[in-house]
Amino acid sequence: MPTTLQKFTALQVMHDAPVIPVIVLNDVAHAVPMARALVSGGIRMLEVTLRTPSALACIEAIANVVPEAVVGAGTVRTPADAKAAANAGARFAVSPGYTPLIGQACRDLGLPLLPGVATGSEIMMAQQDGFTELKFFPAMQAGGPAMLKAWSGPFFDVKFCPTGGVTLQNAPEFLALSNVVCVGGSWLVPADAVAKGDWAVITKLARETAALKKS
Ligand code: 3PG
Question: Is 188 in the pocket of ligand 1 (CB under 6 A)?
Answer without folding.
Answer: no
